[in-house]
């Protein structure tokens, strides 16, 4: 049975970087993007190593093979991964339950990806339940942004329990801000 765990080795980090690169929007066809989804941000092994020292990400391994990952970006991670600063800053200004999100305990999902042979088998749910298991004592909310051009990702997040709290435009396009509330 596949189960979530925290990243614990350089081999796992290398596999995350490789899987991310293989599913990067710029590296796959329009047909694959529409059918399988895609990831938007680039993560090098060096950046991943630094991020995992701050807050390890959640992965699912099948023996020695990475089946999927869900990257953890806490507020402390922003210096290491500045691409996330606009997302974090925008989310901080949004109201939720009568307060700005910036006044609440949240972190960002930096990226989630499931390897091709494992798609459609509930790994998104397993990865996110891992995040809840490992991080719900420290954080109340998990937030990410999803492109409307990635309906597979939107559907998977809704199935987990994420809700859309905002839609906005930036230089990269249109984004749905989605939130999973653990309170």
Can you describe this structure?
The chain has 6 helices and 9 strands. The protein has 183 residues and is of the alpha+beta class. It has a single domain (4-181), classed as Aminopeptidase, CATH 3.40.630. The protein has a 7-stranded mixed sheet with strand order 1-2-3-6-7-9-8. It is globular and about 45 Å long. The model has no long low-confidence stretch (mean pLDDT 92).
Topology:
Blueprint: E1 4-6, H1 10-22, H2 30-36, H3 45-54, E2 58-62, E3 65-73, H4 85-92, E4 95-96, E5 99-100, E6 106-114, H5 123-135, E7 141-146, H6 151-160, E8 163-170, E9 173-181
Parallel strand pairs: 6-7
Antiparallel strand pairs: 1-2, 2-3, 3-6, 4-5, 7-9, 8-9
Q: How many DSSP-defined strands? A: 9
Fraction in helix: 25-40%
Order of helices and strands: EHHHEEHEEEHEHEE
Tally of DSSP helical segments: 6
At the fourth level of CATH, the homologous superfamily is Gcn5-related N-acetyltransferase (GNAT)
Poorly predicted runs: none
CATH architecture term: 3-Layer(aba) Sandwich
Strand order of the largest sheet: 1-2-3-6-7-9-8
Summarize model confidence as the mean pLDDT.
Answer: 92
Oligomer: single chain
| Overall number of domains | 1
CATH class division:
Alpha Beta
Estimate the global geometry from the Cα principal axes: globular
Largest sheet: 7 strands, mixed
Query: Mind telling me the C-alpha Rg?
Result: 15 Å
CATH topology, by name, is Aminopeptidase
Q: Distance between termini? A: 28 Å
Instruction: Determine the strand fraction and express it as a percent band.
Output: 25-35%
InterPro entries: Acyl_CoA_acyltransferase (IPR016181), GNAT_dom (IPR000182)
GO molecular function, one term: acyltransferase activity, transferring groups other than amino-acyl groups
Protein name: N-acetyltransferase domain-containing protein
Domain N-acetyltransferase: 59-162
